[in-house]
Structure formats: C-alpha cells, structure tokens
UniProtKB/TrEMBL annotation:
Belongs to the peptidase S45 family. Ca(2+) binds at residues 366, 369. It comes from Robiginitalea myxolifaciens. Pfam families: Penicil_amidase. This is Penicillin amidase. One of its GO terms (biological process) is antibiotic biosynthetic process. Keywords: Calcium, Hydrolase, Membrane, Metal-binding, Transmembrane, Transmembrane helix, Zymogen.
Length: 842
C-alpha cells in the first residue's frame, strides 16, 4: 500500500508541477496578448490624436493658394475671428472664402443642398419630403435662369468668383471635416449657383404665407367668415406701428376690415390645414434654422450722450450649431468691412466700418400668394387663363437617396407657379392650388444688392443698393458717422384691391388685379424728428401705396423698445447694450389683468387666489429667478387650447400656434368676449369666455403644482426655460456630447426684447428654439469699442477652441469687442495664417 501511496503522491506532485508550468505559460501568453492589445490601443489613441489634430482648422502657418496676386495676412483674435489684410479686394475675398470654408464647410454644404433638393443624398429617405418641397418651389431653376443672364464682368460676379476660388482651394487641399467621414459624403466644388440657391432658401425661410394661408382658407371653408374675420384684423390704429417719413393717406388703411369681402366657403375642396402643418414640419426639421424675427434701432446724435449715432441690431433666427453668422474683418486699400456672413455667401448681410453701419430685420410683407386654378372639365391637364385653356407643364425630377434607389418625383406648374397639391397625395386629385412667389418669379438682383450695400460709401449709394432687393422683404437699418439714421422696407411690393384678402386662397383670375408698387412708395423713415428709427417686425404706417399686407409680429417688442427709447435722450453704448438684453414684457401684464378680471373671486379657493394675486402683481419680467412666467405661459397655452382646439382639431391647433397671426391675436382674444371661438363646439352647452378663462387658469395652476409643487420658489424660470444649440448630427445620441452645446438655463422669453422664443406645447417646459443670432452695438463716437456676441462660437469644427467659446458670455447677456484698430488686432492676435501665391520654379 505504501508503494501505491508513494506512487500516487509522486503523480500528484507531477501533475501540480505540470499544472504550474501550464499556468505560467498561460500567464505569459496573457501578458503578451495584453502587451499587444496595449500597443494596439496606444496606436489607436495616437492615430485618433493625429486624426483629430488633422481635422482641426489651421490658424497658424503659411499656405500657398492658387490665384493670389500677393500674400494675404489673416490675424485671428482671441475668439477666432479672422482679420484679413490684402493688397487687393479679389485677394481679400479669396482669403475670406478659404477661412470661411475652413470653419464652416459642413454648414455651407447643407445650406447649398436645400434648394436643389439634395438633402436625401446625405440623410436618406427622412428628408425626401423636404427635397420634394424645394424642388417644387423651383429655386434652383430660377437661380440658373438668373445666372445665365449674369454680367460676368460685373464686380459682384468677379468677387463672388474669387470667394469661391478660396472655398474650393480649401475643399481640394484642406482637411475633410468630421461630418463628411460620418456621413460618407464626398466633397464637391462650389459654384455660383450655390450662392443663389443659398439665398433662395433663406428667402423662403423668412416667409409666413405657406404656414398661414392654407390654414385660414380651411377655417373659412369649414367654420365660416366670422371665424376668419377675428383672425385677419389688420389695422394701423390697433397696434404699435413704425412711423414713416413718406406718409400717404393713413386713414385709408385704418379700417381695412370694413373693406374686406371674404369669398364664399368652398364645399368641394379638401382640407388644406395639412398643407400648413406639413410645410411647417418640413421647415422645422431642416438641418439649418429658419429666420424668425429681429430687433433693431438706430439713435441719432440728438438721442445720445456723445452726439454720435448708436446702432443696435439682433436678428432672430432658429438656433442651431454652428451659429448662423461667420464674422470676418476684411481690409484692402479699396475696401474695409467688419461683417457677418451667411454660409457660402461672399458679401456680409450685417456690417460696419468707420463710415457707416447696416443691419436688418424681417419686413414680414406678404410675397407668397395661393390661387385656385379652374381646370378644363374635359381635359384636367388644362387650366383657364384669360378665356383660353392652357396646359399645365409637367416637371419630372429624380431624387438621389443615400443607401436606397433614386426616387422619381413629378409636379405640375401653371404660369403663376407650382401646384402644391402634388406634394400631398391626399390632395393630388383636388382642385389645383398654385403658389406664386416673388422670389422665383421676379428679377433677381439680390447678389448685386448685397454687393452694393457692403460697398456703399454714402447714404445715397446705400439706398440705391437697397432698391434692388425684391425678396425676401427686409427692413434695412442704417446709421453713419455723419449723423444720419434711416430704415427702408426693401422688397418688390405689389397690391390687390382692399376688398381682397391675400391671406386666403384666391381665384387665379384675380391675379390680373395685382399692381406693382414703385420702390419710392415703400415704407421708410429717414432722419425722423423723433431722433431714432426702429423695427421689431411690427406693422409700418400706411404710405401713398396704402396699407402693405403682411404677417407682422405683435406690438410687444415694439412697445417696449419705444417706451425705453422715448424716456431719455442721453443714450450711450452701455445703456443700449443693457437694453438689447431686456427681458420685461409691456403686454403680458395687461393680458393678465384682462384675464384676471374675468375670473370670479368666489370661484377660487385660497391657493388659487394666492397665485392669481401673484400674477396680478407681476411686472412682466422673465428673469432667471422669476416664478410668474411659468404659470403665465402655462395659462396662455391652456387658454389657447381650450379656445381653438375644439374647432381646429389637434393638428389645426398646432398649425395655428406656428403662425404670427396667433401671436398677434392673443392680446385681442382676451378682450373680445363675443368671438365664436369661445364656445366649445364639442359640447351641447354654450360656454362663455369667462367660464373658459376660469377653467383654463385652474387647469394651468393644477398642472404647474403637480409638476413642481406649491412653493413658487421652485418655479424659477431657469428650471423651465432652457436652451441647447443642436448640431444636425447631435440627433444621434452617441454624437450629442461631441456636437451639441448645452443645455443651459436662460432668461428672456418670446416677444420680449431679448426674444428667446419657444413653441407652446403640453409639456409645461419652454425649450428655446429661436432668438438673437448675434447682438451688435456700434458706437460711432468710439467705433473701435463697438461690441458684439455670437451664441456659441466662430467655428463649426467641434475640435476648434472656438466652437463654443462665446456660449457662456451669450447666456449671461455679455459682449466682446469687435476689433478694428490695427495695433490692437496685432496685440490680441493669437494666431496668424499667411496665404501666399503659388511659387513657380525658375
């Protein structure tokens, strides 16, 4: 037995030794694998590091560029803003094109793809509806028609070509932005047609008719004229109007409602509300924001403490990342402007130098009309025109779709414009409705206009350039070192007889009643006695051409601006900078007062009374710690839903909320207790305005308390009113931290001067979707200390230090200097890029 035990013991020891050797070998193998993996990881990290470094914009060094006649210096300041110095203007624009593309190529790429219907090449079938819409609008065809007639020897053509040479040099020789890798898109050179197409998209994003007219027509057909009249009221004695210095018979426009004759409802047409809702969804879902509104005021020497002009402007645009504007200071012996550029557009839309400054707000005039075509009952391919039958033109297009087969698309056009039914399968067989738009049907001199205003050396040259703008309608704001202040409503205006509402779908035969308005009769104010000019997208006074129909915004911001400007004549730069971030509404407390008077005290419990008293004491401020705005805006939403949704349905109600008409009707709604809207048509009883107001207050308060409790200290505005700057690729959860900026709590609100707007919905939160795309204050007493801010940063490259370096300043309502002094630029230069002509071998 002993020998067996000994044998077993030896065997166990042998096995242990063998197992130990195996374990050691396994550990060695694991160690070797770990080293390999560590080396691979290190290589990946290094590769990633060098890849990221390669993707960063090149702000330093020397680069050769084809086409340059001499070297160009680009000095980048603390915030990455290029100060371009060149010996000639064409070279300056070549450099501008290069540095613009370096920081914003992906933004340029998306913008140029909208009008020709090429988004689906990037985003797949999810953008097919957008491509169909813009192909139907015909922007690309109109752009090519205008280019075919362009004067290739004109200065604007040559400078635009130089700018594109710079853009294309970066495309050919610069690093490829990350977005191209993530989407698998190949870079393509830019052409002049891309400039026109980008301007065309921006023009359409200004318009409101496509959101409004089909909805109003549907209301007329389904509910009757009384409902429409309540929404259509437009008059110069019921709102804050912009004073003009070329007045006509203003009295003729004050009672426009009395002249209006609405056509009879049409029973045979399908609902058009879906048209408004669908187009609104398409525009809202685009990877680039739409323009919403704006503020501007220009103070003459009589209104300032220094005796020099003060200029303020903050265009309101949908928020996105990167921000809309690219800042650049461009200087040559013949030219100098510190300007704000749209993606792919060579000439600045907003700018100043030492002689003058200009900016813009949206005019909001009506430049889109919808018409019913009368179809030949024996041949539906024909429509009636002047007693004759004309044939619809059939347009066929192919849309390339990423990862899928190309999609065929066709639509019809008449001589007035495209048939919008073809965009909506449910309306395909209905009475054709065509859309007539000034931008695509009129003479297009927008590029010439932008060149002219950016090169105007005096007041007269600026006005001449402004007269070339046909669409979109803009309020062009102006101030100069000579003490002049002015604004012009820049648009190709036309009129119909006052009995016709252009906000409804008209019979095509009525187009013959349209008459053009000469530019000399456009609203304007030049050096008015008041000592200032302003615009907050509100209605101008009537001119000799009469009342100009439009989709003007309510008087809220206009009243606050004029109230503040009228109260003092010693404005300085600091005062204007404080005013431009003002967050108090002059109108909201009045709405509360009107609503509160309708609520019987004995119908409220103690808690409800306490909160109603809190609202009644509110001054309209939307500061971060204010609790009142939370309850006020919830009440407004619940009231609006109770008033409108029973007649319009959920989709119709959402469509109404997206219009300027809703914003404008709100203050009148709470005063007009006899409107048919008040009754809930889904009940047998007839509800009064007072009953609806009372119940909506209780519903709003209950929901806020359920959401945040009864302590109003927990209702601080900052917890509900937030902003996030969203990149198109930030919709992918994994990419959101890389591309998106925020969210941040932020002060302000819709239709206050600091117009940080949000859509009304049922969530109880007020997520900002639009607001000041820049804030500028230009002081002609000290031009080199003028100031500005962008919402996020100068660069659209997420690896640039200037991707978000202005965001916290913006959120706090602060500014930074716009440098123009050469010595200060050199002092604050943090990077220098020198572009040189290509060296040729001897």
């Amino acid at each position: 037995m002993a020998s067996i035990g000994q044998a077993n013991g030896d065997d166990s020891i042998g096995k242990a030794v063998s197992l130990g050797d195996t374990t050691i070998e396994l550990l060695k193998t694991i160690r070797r694998i770990f080293k390999v993996l560590l080396a691979l990881l290190l290589l990946l990290v290094l590769a990633g590091y060098f890849f990221v470094q390669h993707l960063k914009p090149e702000y330093d060094g020397e680069l050769e560029m084809q086409g340059l006649a001499a070297s160009v210096t680009v000095s980048y300041d603390t915030y990455g803003i290029p100060h371009i110095t060149a010996d000639s203007e064409p070279d300056a624009y070549r450099a501008l094109g290069y540095v613009h593309a370096q920081d914003r190529l992906w933004q340029m790429e998306l913008l140029r793809r909208i009008a020709p219907g090429r988004l689906s090449e990037v985003f797949g079938s999810q953008t097919l509806d957008a491509d169909r819409l813009f192909l139907t609008l015909g922007i690309d065809e109109a752009s090519r028609r205008h280019l075919a007639k362009a004067d290739t020897l004109s200065r604007e053509y040559q400078l635009s070509t130089a700018y594109l040479e710079g853009v294309n040099t970066f495309i050919a020789e610069g690093p490829t932005p990350l977005e191209y890798y993530l989407t698998g898109l190949d870079k393509e050179p830019f052409e002049l047609v891309d400039i026109y197409n980008s301007l065309g998209y921006m023009a359409f994003s200004f318009a409101m008719a496509h959101k409004t007219d089909p909805l109003l027509e549907d209301i007329k057909n389904r509910l009757g004229p009384d409902y429409v009249y309540s929404l259509l009221e437009d008059c110069s004695n019921c709102t804050e109007t912009i004073p003009i210095t070329n007045p006509g018979d203003s009295a003729a426009a004050t009672d426009l409602q009395a002249k209006l004759v609405l056509p009879q409802p049409r029973d045979e047409v399908a609902s058009l509300t879906g048209v408004s809702r669908k187009i609104d969804q398409i525009i809202g879902g685009l990877p680039l924001p739409a323009l919403e509104g704006s503020n501007s005021w220009v103070l003459s020497p009589a209104k300032t403490s220094t005796g020099a002009v003060l200029f303020a402007n903050d265009p309101h645009i949908g928020f996105a990342q990167p921000s809309v504007w690219f800042e650049a200071h461009v200087k040559s012996p013949q030219y100098e402007r510190y300007g704000y550029h749209l993606a792919g557009i060579p000439f600045p839309i907003l700018a100043h130098n030492r002689q003058n400054a200009y900016g813009m707000t949206m005019f909001e005039n009506d430049d889109i009309d919808f018409f019913y075509e009368t179809v030949n009952p024996e041949d539906p391919s024909q429509y009636s025109r002047n007693g004759q039958w004309e044939s619809f033109k059939e347009e066929k297009r192919m849309i390339e779709v990423k990862g899928e087969d190309a999609v065929a698309f066709s639509f019809r056009t008449s001589d007035l414009g495209p048939v919008v039914n073809d965009l909506f399968p449910d309306l395909k067989e209905e009475t054709p409705v065509v859309m007539s738009w000034v931008f695509t049907s009129g003479k297009n001199e927008v590029l010439q206009a932008l060149y002219g205003i950016s090169h105007a050396g005096d007041f007269q040259a600026f006005e001449q350039a402004v007269s070339k703008i046909h669409a979109p309608g803009l309020n062009m704001m102006y101030g100069d070192a000579e003490g002049n202040v002015a604004w012009w409503a820049a648009a190709k205006l036309y009129r119909f007889p006052d009995s016709i509402s252009t906000k409804l779908v008209m019979e095509a035969s009525l187009d013959s009643l349209r008459s053009d308005v000469p530019f000399s009769e456009n609203p304007r104010a030049i050096n008015p006695e008041a000592g200032y000019v302003y615009s907050a997208n509100n209605q101008p006074e009537s001119t000799s051409a009469g009342y100009i129909p439009g989709y003007y915004l309510p008087e809220n911001r206009a009243r606050r601006i004029t109230d503040l400007l009228e109260c003092r004549d010693d404005w300085d730069r600091e005062g204007v900078a404080e005013m431009i971030v003002d967050v108090t509404s002059s109108v909201d407390p009045e709405i509360i007062s009107d609503l509160a008077r309708a609520v019987p005290v004995d119908a409220l419990n103690e808690t409800e009374l306490e909160f109603l008293d809190m609202l009644n004491s509110w001054d309209g401020s939307h500061a971060l710690k204010s609790p009142e705005p939370v309850l006020y805006h919830r009440w407004v939403y619940e009231l609006s839903r109770a008033v409108f949704q029973d007649e319009l349905g959920e989709e119709g109600f959402k469509a109404l909320l997206s219009t300027h008409i809703y914003k404008r009707v709100l203050a009148r709604l709470v005063k007009e207790r006899e409107w048919p809207w008040w009754d809930n048509v889904q009940t047998e009883s007839v509800e009064t305005a007072e009953a609806i107001i009372e119940q909506s207050f209780k519903d709003a308060l209950e929901q806020v308390i359920d959401q945040s409790g009864e302590d109003p200290d927990k209702w601080e505005w900052k917890n509900f009113h937030t902003i996030e700057f969203e990149h198109p690729l930030g919709a992918v959860a994994a990419l959101r931290p890389i591309f998106n900026i925020g969210p941040y709590p932020i002060h302000g609100s819709r239709e206050v001067v600091n117009n940080l707007a949000f859509p009304y919905d049922s969530t109880g939160y007020f997520k900002v979707n639009a607001g000041p795309s820049t804030r500028r204050v230009i002081d002609f007493s000290d031009i080199e200390n003028s100031q500005s801010i962008l919402p996020t940063g100068q660069s659209g490259n997420p690896f640039s230090p200037h991707y978000d370096d202005q965001s916290e300043l913006y959120i706090r309502g602060e500014f930074r200097k716009m440098l123009m002094n050469p010595a200060e630029i050199q002092e604050k230069e943090i990077n220098r890029l020198v572009l040189t002509p290509v060296r040729t071998s001897e």
